Amino acid sequence: MKNFYCSIFGHKYEVSKKVTYHVKEYSCKHCNEQLTTDGNGRLTPLTPKFKEINSVLERIHKKKVKRRALILDR
Ligand SMILES: [Zn+2]
């Protein structure tokens, strides 16, 4: 998936999705290669396994945010 630009200049990653406060998904502007943050805060290729983990994390995170909002509402 590496294109010519990336092999010379390296990937240009942008945040494509915020999963939680600490975990984000990134994609390269030029070749769409995807990365994510793993449990240790390091960047790792976004494999189907990590996509699955992230979708679970996202669901938990959204629930937490919602609960916090409800508490603040009172
Ligand atoms: Zn790239």
Overall number of structural domains: 1
What's the order of the H and E elements? HEEEEH
Mean pLDDT over all positions: 92
Bound molecules: zinc ion
What does this structure look like?
With 74 residues, the protein is an alpha+beta fold. The chain has one domain (4-73). Helix content is 43%, strand content 24%. It has two helices and four strands, in the order αββββα. The protein has helices at 4-9, 48-73; strands at 13-18, 24-28, 34-37, 43-45. Strands 1-2-3-4 form a four-stranded antiparallel sheet, with no helix packed on it. The longest helix has 26 residues, at 48-73. The radius of gyration is 15 Å and the shape is elongated. The relative contact order is 0.15. The mean pLDDT is 92. Zinc ion (ZN) binds at residues 6, 11, 28, 30-31, 33.
Short note summarizing the structure:
With 74 residues, the chain is α+β, with helices and mostly antiparallel strands. The protein has one domain (4-73). The chain has helices at 4-9, 48-73; strands at residues 13-18, 24-28, 34-37, 43-45.
Task: Break the fold down into its secondary structure elements and pairings.
Layout: H1 4-9, E1 13-18, E2 24-28, E3 34-37, E4 43-45, H2 48-73
Bound molecules: zinc ion (ZN).
Descriptive labels:
binds zinc ion; elongated; 74 residues; 2 helices; alpha+beta; 4-stranded antiparallel β-sheet
